[in-house]
Amino acid sequence: MDMERLSHLPEKKRRELHRVAQIIFEEFDESLKTKLSEKAKRGRILKLILFGSYARGNWVEDRKSGYLSDYAC
After folding, report:
1. Residue 57 contacts by C-beta under 8 Å, 6 or more apart in sequence?
2. pTM for this structure?
3. Positive/negative CA dihedral, 24, 25, 27, 28
4. 46-68, pLDDT tens digit by residue?
């Protein structure tokens, strides 16, 4: 993951996104093991795209109301 592109986010959010990406790649690799065709076995993830409030830099964490922006990948 290109962490420099996430430099506008707090360290905790960068760690969370890194873990999310790690899980996505691990699960994808695991799913390829069950594929029968050679074409399907060569599948790959080309990119993960973060969009929405975290990408724009205007996410909300309002502890008083409990409203939290979520990740949109």
Report:
1. 8, 9
2. 0.73
3. positive
4. 999 988 888 888 888 888 998 88
Q: What are the beta bridge partners of residue 9?
A: none
Separation of alpha carbons 6 and 19, rounded Å: 14
CA distance 61 to 29: 33
Task: Enumerate the β-bridge partners of residue 51.
Answer: 72
69 CB neighbour count, 10 Å cutoff:
13
Name the CA radius of gyration of the chain, rounded.
16
Give the Cα-Cα-Cα angle 20, 24, 26 (nearest 5 degrees).
115
Where do the DSSP E strands lie in 1-73?
A: 61-62, 67-68
Of 10, 5, 4, the C-alpha closest to 51 is 5
